[in-house]
Amino acid sequence: MESKDNKDFFQNHSLNYIQMALSTDKMQRINHPDGYSKKKGECGDIVEFFLTGDKNRIESVTFMVQGCMNTVACSNTVVHFAIGQPPDAAWDITPEQVSEFLETLPADHYHCAELAMGAFYLALADMTSTKPCYH
What we know:
Elements lengths: L3 H9 L2 H8 L12 E6 L5 E8 L4 E9 L2 H14 L4 H4 L4 H8 L7 H19 L7
Antiparallel strand pairs: 1-2, 2-3
């Protein structure tokens, strides 16, 4: 039997939010990513992003979250917007776009969109920085 809390969850959130909050296919660590970051929010949530690609295209974006479902939803949304994009275009993704896409991100959890974007920007900066080449 379905609990009242589950009914409320599904009735109170958009389909986009539910899909992004419950999806786990992009939650994984990647060894030797081209871009990596780890950021802790004021709320205590921790987000890590792992990017692969080159200057022309972000091929893969995965993440790990230690935190709430809102942060997971925001991180999945960042992946949704970033994958396949040129790195230069990915800088244009904003927390506002993440929140708008989710439609029902609680206003008091907007900081989750900011945290996810902040962590992504750090990974993007790591990916696009000039790194020494070891041959």
